[in-house]
TrEMBL record:
It comes from Vitis rotundifolia (Muscadine grape). This is Pentatricopeptide repeat-containing protein. Belongs to the PPR family. P subfamily. It comes from the Eukaryota. Keywords: Repeat. The keyword Repeat applies. Residues 61-74 have a biased composition (Low complexity). One of its GO terms (molecular function) is mRNA binding. Gene3D superfamilies: Tetratricopeptide repeat domain.
Amino acid sequence: MLFNFNFRPRIRETLANPHKFRDLFEFRACVIGVEVGPTCKPRSSFQFPSYVLNTFFSSLSSGNPNPSSHSNPSLYGERDDFDAIGEGSDRFKQMGFGESRDLGHFGSGLDDLDDNEESSDIEEGGNDHNDDDLMVLNSFTGGYRQTEGIRRFEGGEDESRHPLVREICRLIELRSAWNPKLEGELRHLLRSLKPRQVCAVLQLQSDERVALRFFYWADRQWRYRHDPIVYYAMLEILSKTKLCQGAKRVLRLMAKRRIERQPEAFGYVMVSYSRAGKLRNAMRVLTMMQKAGIEPNLSICNTAIHVLVMGNRLDKAVRFLERMQIVEIAPNVITYNCLIKGYCDLHRLEDAMELIAEMPFKGCSPDKISYYTVMGFLCKEKRIKEVRLLMEKMLKDSNLLPDQVTYNTLVHMLSKHGHGDEALEFLREAEERGFRVDKVGYSAIVHSFCREGRMDKAKEIVNEMFSKGCIPDVVTYTSVINALCQERKVDQAKKMLRQMYKHGCKPNTVSYTALLNGLCKNGNSLEAREMMNMSEEEWWIPNAITYSVLMHGFRREGKLSEACDLVREMIQKGFFPTPVEINLLIQSLCQEEKVDEAKRFMEQCLNNGCAVNVVNFTTVIHGFCQKDDLEAALSLLDDMYLSNKHPDAVTYTTVIDALGKKGRIEEATKLAMKMLQVGLIPTPVTYRTVIHQYCRMGRVEDLLKLLEKMLSRQECRTAYNQVIEKLCSFGNLEQAYKLLGKVLRTASKIDANTCHMLMESYLSKGIPLMSYNVACRMFNRNLIPDLKLCEKVSKKLMLEGKSEEADKLILRFVERGRISPQCQLDL
């Protein structure tokens, strides 16, 4: 049914006079199937739904005169997606009746999640360096008390495996094909969910934006309201992303729904802003919290310090700690651990250890994490003596006994940074103290030795593991196999693979890929191919890296057809090569003058959804140009636009150079002009190519016109220097001399070299007078020419009987103080 409310005054009058309530049912309604008129009689009886009236009156009693105003759409960044069929129809749909299409919006687009939307609460801007955002603590009167935290959802398997949760997640995955029927199913299931199950649905979404859209959609449904725990679960999800604006809107929605906002909620928003790189906005959340009348607690203060430390503002974090103590918010071990981490990140280990020493005097004893943080950075710098001193200090000052976790941490840290011998010392010490080191610790040490190429030591550790009953796992074996292959000891790697089966350890894809890589590097790509063909029998599945390893092996051996076939098989299995891998194959095909095959291969990759880019097209175009097939190159250049791959400056430069070599200078000019028209900036190679081809053809005037337009787009300091030098190399000295004025404007060392080249060209042509003129023009621009070159010019002038010019040239050097008068007489 569709209704048209045009009787607001009548309704308000009825509410003001309850005795007229009966008259409410006598209003004129436009009902489908009812004749409207002064004495209209319905064709069929109609009973006004009582639940609609209840909804209508409840909305009026809440102070909202408009029964359809569910909430402000701008709160969500959403828009109404309902078709307006009369005012009443629209309102009824917003209350949950009629055919709604708002989930269609839930499943399409990201307009409601635009992180660039301006906020009235938090101004956007860069990082500042003042303490204005720390002054919020001054408004706190003290007497800090720990408030009871909100119920926090811990993702459990019971909720995530619930049939309702799984069904809703399935429906959400079908959001691209939504229709009213599916929407009705989702709405019905939503009302049956418990709050923790709603949280599970949100957390099971792989895309946080989808989770946020589902959160908004659910909030708009009739007879459903989010439990407070759902708001906090949504904020926690967003705190792990850069969707800071979405987190802020959820926080504002909590205020509108009158949900208690504890400092932890603001902390989630602060972390989200921090992840987005907006440190200033993150700290202004404290001001936002102050305006909301919420007092800070230890949790939000720790979050603020963490944000400042992650933003490389350790000095500000220390000042924030001082303000916390002033307002009687006592820091805990988490607070100090954040600062310790900040000191270590800045390589201020002494300050970190000093802070650990001061913690007991401030009423907060350090825990093992405090020590582990410093130990990790000491291990990175191989300061083993200080690590041992810190372990003794941990026992003496804090009464924290080094346990198995301590030794495992040290072993892993030292192994990670390539200090296998030191890690082995701590492993021995742990065993002496009765701690059992598991295979993970041994594997870390083995991996460290393998990376250093110390295979004998790695094998020794593996044998020791067997003797102690600690059977190596697949990670340990794979590290050894990979290291053996790196040293070209493929036979030993094969034996190690067989040994894995012997000891009941099944090799995985990584193990086989490491072995295949060794075979390919040894030139045994065919053997590697046979081994991969046997993968199903060996119960392992090749992945994209496996195919890539084998493809590069075939390419290095020149077996390009096998490599192309492998890529096609790779695509059929759902693995796509990268543009770099595609380009390497295309380049190899072009080098063997198989350009047509390279083009077909590229087109196959493009049609199968591979990420073919402009570099791949340019490589094929260059191959056609090298083959002197310019028509095919120009045709492929046009095809790039059809494939939505726009040529870049390198592409145009390649074709321009090829056209210039063939003497098709007019076409090259048009292509260069087109490059400028589409907004591409010429590269230095473009300048060199254009200058070379135009100077070779003697088209200097055309070159100067083109250069003027190119220079207006991108400045090239040496453009005219290159023109003069090219003209000299082609013997066009007259044109080169005409351009000398453009070079002598700056009088740099590069300009001097250009002038010297022109002078030598004139001397080789037997025209010393022109060399003299060039030298004089250099002197006039306060640019001193080369003395030895000028001596040659002077001697040539004397031989031609032009002693006056020769004397003047040498006199210029005397005036500049470059030679003495006596040397002038000798000359």
